[in-house]
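In the previous chapter we treated chains in isolation. Here, by contrast, the input contains two separate entities that must be folded as one system, with a combined length of 452 residues.
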Amino acid sequence: MQGIGITIKVLIGSIILGYLMAFIAGFSRLSRNPILKYLTVFYVEIFRGTSLIVQLFWLYYAMPILFGIDIGSDYWAGVLAIALNYGAYMSEIVRGSILSVAKGQKEAATALNMSRFQQMRLVIFPQAVRMMLPEFGNYLIQMLKATSLVSLIGMTDILYYGDILRSNNLSQAPTVYLLVLVFYFIMALPLIGMTKRMEKASKKGVASQ
Amino acid sequence: MNNWKWDVFFEAFPIVAAGLGITLGLTIATYLFALLFGFVWTFINRIPLKPVKWLLTWIMEFIRSTPPLVQLFFIFYAWPMVPVVGFALDPFTSAIIGLGIHFSTYIGEVYRSGIEAVDNGQWEAARALNFSTRQKWTKIILPQAIPPTIPMLGNYLIIMFKEIPLASTIGVAGILNLANSYGAANFRYLEALTIVALLFLVLSYPSAILINKLERRMNRRFIKGEPTGSKPVEKEKGAVSQQ
């Protein structure tokens, strides 16, 4: 099971890029600049409207033909597809959380003569982040599950090695796939624990709802 | 952009779109399977035995946090090799069972949240009126528990629709599968895969809007004017949010 390294590498890459995308897209969607705003809407709707596996194949097979650029490696194709897909989903959470910060907070910040940037940085954002936490945790597990798709574009992750083991020894298939499933579950356990902790953190100190 | 060829696009379109029936059929079959199987989880969960509950929670957590792709491979490649109970399944049935079980764990959670949102008084009333267990469920609890969850169930239909192309990996001839074989045969992946993306967008985006509207209407009906005294459905655990 040498594939774990690749799976974790893809996962970490996707998490970092995915969260980055989520914040960039979430903020641009709230921007006052109409071009930026509608570009973001376009991006989010495209990536939420089609399936991840199609996007992955598109990035891997079609993108190099269309623009003549190679993304470089299957690693980047995989990470980009997962990050762009989940970034689109999570940007909606970012947007939703920022919008759901009570209006009085913004008014108070305006009353204190803060600039728009200061308002966001010092008042709105710290309150919005804790609302995002539980959902972000769920998406961590979703992204872990999504990494299994990269074996389809030829990356040597856990599932890839599992497939090779199976084709070498057909009667071992149940054991092999069960092992693969258990490996994924073991990797998911810390993420599940983290999600629970994030949920708790987001509830801490919040007055009764 | 000069690599894009419209004639290839138009040539490939009917070939790829021919798989639409299979993709949609598989979506609906899997969805129905998941809807039914979701009830199984919910009702096992109501057995008042600690070990059963504990075991079930772990099984559901396991199914939910491992990739559906691997589960699909397990059903398709490994199940026939399992001693005693194993038998071969064709790709279509394996996809229904594999993806259906995966999503039924989410759907079971939706049902649970719906049932828990039914007001306590309703349970007491059912008992006070001397209803049998069956009557209690079919006449009082379920008619109130299920309708508020319809938008959530609709969301899962769309999510599932987008996971269905996974079945192409075990050889179900849906749109993605056909596009891949067209791409391999003619070396034109670009147009074929773009068609697949377009078809998905065209089908899932309007339905997402529809579900959103439904959700708003349901919210008005179930949360504001309160005829039955039911609580708003809490968001289910581990949900994949769509809107």
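Chain B has one domain: 6-224. Chain B is about 70% helix and 0% strand. Compare these points with the single-chain example from earlier in the chapter.
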